[in-house]
Amino acid sequence: MSAPAPASPRALHLLFAAQSLGGASPPIIISLGGLVGQQLSADPTAATLPVSLYQLGLALSTLPAAWVMQRHGRRPAYVLGAVLGVLSGLIAAQGIAQQDFVLFCLGTALAGFYAACVQSYRFAAIDAVGDPGLQARAISRVMLGGLIAAVIGPQLVIWTRDALPMTPFAGSFYGQAALALLALPLLLALRLPPPTPASVSGPARPLGAIVRTPQFIVACTAGVVSYGLMAFLMTATPMAMVGCGFSVGEAALGVQWHVLAMFAPSFVTGRLMARWGKLPVTALGLLLTSASGVIALMGLELLHFWGALILLGVGWNFSFIGATALLTESYRPTERAKVQALNDFLVFGTVALASFGSGRLLHTAGWDAINAGMLPLVAAVLLMLAVQAWRQRAATTTAI
């Protein structure tokens, strides 16, 4: 059995910094996409289309991004993603300047490839440490960059949304392009440890056989539901807040608190998984997600919106990082590329479908229906996690 690749602290530092810059783009697109959509589109139900197309672009990009990574390595794929991130911000800003809804949607959709690469940084963190015992902490460490992104993205919206008086919000998307440009030298300097012989040779199961295993089903379902619900509610919340009389700035600050809550727990998530296990931490995250829905149903004051967003963010952190760590138990080293790509395609494909429906549901069913509807989904995944925990205990008892 070959030894794991040595840890690369420099690579983790660079991935952390790149996550800080690349992770700032989604808050900009999500907090402004629906508002710009309302401004540019004559159909109110199409207001969230720019955000939905961003999510769709992310989902569709996971497979080609994985192909580029497998064929040429992670660094060239990440550099290409950052270049497209620059272009996407420029195109979206031009769409606003020209009052062209289609051009704006093209810009947000193109940002999806950059986002697919940024989402893959958590898997690059696994490559950087090699040792399975350190993988959960490495994922948490890189995703801490989202804590910086949680400040950069919403604050950039607040500082730049009126920077160009004749074209409100265009300045924020120029800022998005600038952040991607700043990430380029970091990604060009990235060097990951070479793959171990076990990761490039040896037996590999067909993908169909892997996806039928309980480990993959549970991990992927937890990731799909945790990320899908988070994106669904975060897309609808700014519009719901503005519809209830709150300002764009208050909505942007709500998103900022939410994104801070998404990544701040990463200081302890890896340690919690090392102490309690991956399944309990994932379940805790889903319970917090359901609690956010309960708070949202309690009223329409500013504290209800912000409180729900904060709990939703913490819940996402525990459940999504937990699901990512659980996924590593479902594949062998030679299978990791295809399993990681399929997992992200399913996760972000579901996110795209959810975001497509959020604007219409908010317009037709209302805010309460959106929050009440998520509770049965969370309950179903919690049941799956409980069954998987029982299976693991039974297997351990049998082995003893």
From TrEMBL:
Q: What is this protein called?
A: MFS transporter
Q: Which organism is it from?
A: Comamonas aquatica DA1877
**Keyword Membrane carried by entry:** yes
Q: Name one GO molecular function term.
A: transmembrane transporter activity
Keyword Isomerase carried by entry: no
The family database entries (InterPro entries) matched by this protein are listed as:
MFS, MFS_dom, MFS_trans_sf
Domain Major facilitator superfamily (MFS) profile residue range list? 215-400
Q: Write down the SUPFAM superfamilies for this protein, in alphabetical order.
A: MFS general substrate transporter (SSF103473)
Per the record, the domain of life is: Bacteria
Q: Where are the transmembrane segments?
A: 76-95, 101-121, 142-161, 173-192, 213-235, 255-274, 281-300, 306-327, 339-357, 369-387
Mind listing the UniProt keywords for this protein, alphabetically?
Membrane, Transmembrane, Transmembrane helix
